[in-house]
Amino acid sequence: MRLQCEVEVVSRLLPTCGLRGRGRGTRALLSLGRSPGRARGGGGVYLMVCTARDRVGARYKVQENIERFFTRFVEEGKATVRLREPAVDVCLSKANASNLKNFLSAVRLAHQGTDIEALPLSALVPAKTSEVEKPKTKMIITSRRDYPLTKNFPYSLEHLQASYCKLARIDTRVLCLKKLRKLDLSHNHIKQLPATIGELSCLQELNLHDNHLESFSGALCNSTLQKSLQFLDLSQNKMKALPIQFCQLRELVNLKLDDNELIRLPFKIGQLDRLRFLSAARNKLPFLPSDFRKLCLEKLDLFGNPFEQPNPLVPNIQLKIPLTLLECAARATVNYRIPYGCHLLPSHLCEDLEVAKTCRCGSACLSSFVQITLTMNLHHVAHTVVLVDNMGGTEAPVIDYFCSLDCYSQFLDRHLQSN
Predict the structure, then answer these.
(1) For FRET with 219, which of 13, 29, 113, 305 sits at 20 to 30 Å CA-CA?
(2) What GO cellular component entries does it have (predicted)?
(3) What angle do CA 289, 299, 218 make, to 5 degrees?
């Protein structure tokens, strides 16, 4: 029987035993079995520990030589086997919990003198290099020639870069790497993202720069990426808009959207309260959403967008007087924070409520409103601002909404007086 884990062998007789638990363990292969060459059924059972430095391994007698098992943290893949002779503690960590339980059970039976023939023993032979080497956590591939076609990726990968490989889709083998923290698939030909990428629950950085993406799935925004994704690079693709659900990715710190075909930014972008770096240069943005005012950024780059010239004196009036029953009900639902969901309302109504506008008076409006654009100095939301145009400007138009003619008239009076 064999077990791969990290091992630290600590002597209980040396004064340095106070260091126990401070150092990191060494990757090792543990084997439980008889020494080769012994007659079948003869000889004792040994525990052999093989490491990269000692692949031949150190052997410890097991039968009637175990003083105590420490298994309090076995569910976390940790345990300690205390031997009588020599007086050492074999500390195990980073093991598969199920495999560790089975291994300890076999060691316990061997210690008690159980019939050797009934034990799942292995031959005590030197370990292979691949069995004791440190698991590979990083792989960088920068050409199609080096991309593995027949071999699986190491299950232990935390950082994978596969750039300039002409990939048309994301490899399903990549989606099985549950420990991935950083995935760089830049400079490929990927057109669509599979929903299963949202199952990479540890993913913190996703780089899709220079691909052929036309959309970003709403399903991804509702996946476990909500709690993990901090860096997202979608620059140099073919995206025209982002889904309503995009602002559910509330752990985002750095978002790159440069060189796409975006005609608008996410409506509720202000919900990204951890966002500190935003670049959406060279898109087709005519204005910014009203929620943009809620951002608190360290750096903002909106250079090269065809921003419209704002004119608050020329409003876009979408008012319906009197208000429809649907509008009244929707406003009341948002204003009084009445709980709702697809179990209570049709899904299209839920989606409409999610993008309800907010008037300057604080009230909500759905499809009946007055819309204008106002100039905002981008330094109000960002410490460092890349110039919006070649003229040295740092201002951009932002949408404002009003729930009624009264609210718009009051704003207009104040605006004209201030000017």
Answers:
(1) 305
(2) cytoplasm; nucleus
(3) 45
Q: Which domains does the chain have, with CATH numbers?
A: 1-12+45-130 (no CATH), 138-284 (3.80.10.10), 316-375+396-418 (no CATH)
Q: Which of 314, 315, 320 has its CA nearest to residue 401?
A: 315
Cα 215 to Cα 334: distance, rounded to the nearest angstrom: 29
* Amino acid letter, 20: R
Phi, psi torsion values for 248, nearest 5 degrees: -80, -15
Q: Measure the CA–CA gap between 33 and 35, rounded to whole angstroms.
A: 7
pLDDT tens by residue, 199-243 = 999 999 999 999 999 999 999 999 999 999 999 999 999 999 999
CA angle 15, 17, 21 (to 5 degrees): 155
- Neighbouring CB atoms inside 10 A of 415's CB total 13
Q: For 92, left (φ over 0), alpha (ψ -120 to 50), or beta? A: beta
Cα distances from 311 to residues 52, 315, 396, 408, in angstroms, run: 71, 8, 12, 14
Q: Which residue has the tokens 């029987």?
A: 1
Tell me the C-alpha distance between 280 and 266, whole Å: 12
Cβ-contact 276, 254 below 8 angstroms:
yes
Question: CB–CB of 175/199 below 8 Å?
Answer: yes
Q: pLDDT tens for residues 302-337?
A: 999 999 999 888 999 999 989 999 999 999 999 999
